[in-house]
């Protein structure tokens, strides 16, 4: 069956209708400043190493947020006093136009972007002199080379802009919601296509390529992050991106495939994970584990679903604790964990199987402002430390600690979904998981004092399930939530969908 | 008709069988040094801007050439005296293994790569101390931070390695030829798929996505360069990579589509261009222009085809001059250029329509060592200067002038295909073109003294053809050449191929 037989209506590149001026005004208001300017420099074209091969261009997210410009070499100024936004365009020499084409004219740029004035780069100095700003607010990562030639360094503030920018980006405007809804729908469709097309004998890389093609032909030419297409035990490796294994029936006829992937369109992305059997039919063990994860997402104690509790005011930490409690109950119920529930919870033994956060904000970046990693903050042993350091490692790579001082202290501060209630117009993931990760299990079951809590024989039986994650991208609304993800996720729905292309022997 | 109905046999990721040790020995021989070591640092994982989004990893080409390693954070040492090659592997902490998976063991690396010893990064200093090299040869672009901690700076030579490396990379080994042949075949297949699938109403971006999918599902998960999918007049923009226009029949029912794209597999790429009518049928004007370009490639004066003259010993400059002569004859024949052929050639007026080189080397980089740009080296007027500067601009971006001194002098030196004969085992492109580029034509026809040579009315008639380029990647053999490109390119063959999916009204 051809991958595009179940075609999603072709969208093509959408016309931008992002009111970036509104973003500027919002940031200004959050900063509480009446004068000064924002200055940002957009991403440049990058060549690979010592070659002339261009890297596919992707605008820096904050620059896109304020300008909507997805072309290289632009700069931007927003004047707080006059509310005038200036897009500073690069000058493209004649010789380059022969090779790269005519750039947009001033009129075309004014029509295309939600800015007030176009200025060419040679006039940046004159513009800044004319405005004569009291302060220049930049991000701590902004290249200030051009602006620092015109403005004394003591006028440049690298601290105030970022928190306001992040706060603004956390609560989405209607046009942002519409973009993310669209890209989540088309990415859901790509997940459905993979469910139909997966077969033993294929390679993970081909499925990744199919996912990207399904997104691209529906208008999402970028991926929000490197896709994870992980079969069998690789599903337990959280950031597995090798995607190069063959799906071999002989290795494991009950093999699960975990696909964590989302398209990106106009710089706005999504984040979705589905896990399903390559054969089209869950084994008994796989179904047990899968339904635990589904329960973690859907049906919690006292019939209170996590998803049903998503609404403004809900504390995310509460949700995380709830999910861990469900996981604990279920692992005791099926016998992998043995002992008193409260004792096991206190020891944090569930973290042998589930060692990441319940979710994060999604937007211009997949781990959007508001929390790229949600670490568990209490430590009882070495593995906690190990998990903590892991989180920290990734957070540091993400640069979230810049100019904030002590790192330990900032893990919490940088992931404030932990200490503030949900609000309408947040877009977040809900992504419980359960993994049989070799490194983690070896560490946990290696502590002699903890071994009595694990049924090692039963653990061995479930180990071949590999790992399960179910991840939806959802919008918090005034009265609850809208699940933007429309790919099936119950065992029955998945098996029904796969039945047509996976006849039972 | 589904894009993959004409399926190419699925290849999947190939096992590496690149004898990189041979590459090291060859580089050593070309350097003529008996002692010292080569030190290279491979590419690192890169995160996008101030986020934790990983950029798709691509090894630095020279590092891949000597090691075959396509993973981040490796280093490499080759000892000239003992001929022992050392792969320096990164140490992956336990915490990271939970997230990224277990790295290869020493045994696995020794099996996977053609190296003699594996050393972990902490042992680099001890290794270098043990070897105690007289010189450390690095590329001028190598990050020497790790090695310079162990070796005094005056032992580090940044000049000798590069020329030898480039010379070695220019003449391909059998396993390299096999990789490029394979990727050229599967990319040719992807071009054929696009010919079948192109239709009015589609967007250039969808066709790009289809090309990438066709490559990826046949095992080439990378593109050798950003694809150019250029409809109508955009075909005249040489490095058009926006690829976002709709193919609108109302704009131009005779619209041509130029697709310049090639897959990449195991870091080896290819470079192919095909140009064809969206409708499936060439208009009279399009056919005229197309056949001129085909003649430039195939059937030159006195029945001497360029392709037929490709063999060891042939001077590339001779080929370029031949092609320009054919172009001149043909443009006079159809009446766009008016006047005496020798006079027109002397004035270089063909460059109004054809302003790039006839070809370049292909390998680990698409514009491989041996010439990324082949500029015309004689200047008669401002536009020559403009073209020259353009070439220079792109060359400079490619970094080919590093530590070589005067730029003007080096345009020729850096593109030595111009001053040396072809040799067996070179892989090069042959890519004549003919373009109606607004910037170029405006410049050329703007010189009052040149206007008499142009039939402006006729020029107007042909202008809507946009541009045509036909580009094959070919291997120079002992006795001639092998065209690795297998996509059709005559008008008849293209129309026959497209007929099934483009019925005539």
In short:
Chains A, B: GO terms for molecular function: manganese ion binding; metalloaminopeptidase activity. The structure is a homodimer of 505-residue chains. The first copy, chain A, is of the alpha+beta class and 505 residues long.
Number of folding domains of chain A? Answer: 2
Helix percentage of chain A? 25-40%
End-to-end Cα distance of chain A, whole Å, is 19 Å
The general outline of chain A is globular
- In spatial order, strands of the major sheet of chain A run 4-3-2-1-5-6
Mean pLDDT of chain A, rounded to whole units? 86
By DSSP (H or I, 4+ residues per run), the number of helices of chain A equals 18
Please outline the major beta sheet of chain A.
6 strands, mixed
Q: Name the beta content range of chain A.
A: 5-15%
CATH architecture classification of the largest domain in chain A: Alpha-Beta Complex
Oligomer type = homodimer
Low-confidence stretches of chain A: 1-14, 371-416
Largest interface: A-B, 81 and 80 residues
Secondary-structure-derived class of chain A: alpha+beta
CATH topology of the largest domain in chain A: Creatine Amidinohydrolase
Features:
homodimer; 505 residues; alpha+beta; Creatine Amidinohydrolase, Chain A, domain 1; Creatine Amidinohydrolase; 17 strands; globular; disordered N terminus
Structure notes:
Two copies of one chain form a homodimer. Chain A has helices spanning 20-31, 61-67, 94-100, 106-112, 124-131, 145-148, 161-170, 174-197, 204-217, 284-297, 306-309, 316-334, 341-347, 382-397, 407-414, 438-445, 456-463, 491-499, and strands at 37-41, 75-79, 85-89, 117-120, 136-137, 156-157, 222-223, 228-231, 256-260, 263-265, 268-269, 273-277, 427-430, 433-435, 467-469, 472-476, 481-483. The first copy, chain A, has 18 helices and 17 strands. Chain A folds into two domains: 20-168, 3-Layer(aba) Sandwich (Creatine Amidinohydrolase, Chain A, domain 1), CATH 3.40.350; 173-374 and 415-499, Creatinase/methionine aminopeptidase superfamily (Creatine Amidinohydrolase), CATH 3.90.230. Chain A is α+β, with helices and mostly antiparallel strands. Helix content of chain A is 37%, strand content 12%. In chain A, helix 6 (145-148) links the parallel strand 5 and strand 6 (156-157). In chain A, the strands form five sheets. In chain A, strands 4-3-2-1-5-6 form a six-stranded mixed β-sheet, with helices on both faces. A three-stranded antiparallel β-sheet of chain A has the order 7-10-11. Chains A and B meet through helix 3, helix 9, helix 14 and helix 16 of A and helix 3, helix 9, helix 13 and helix 15 of B.
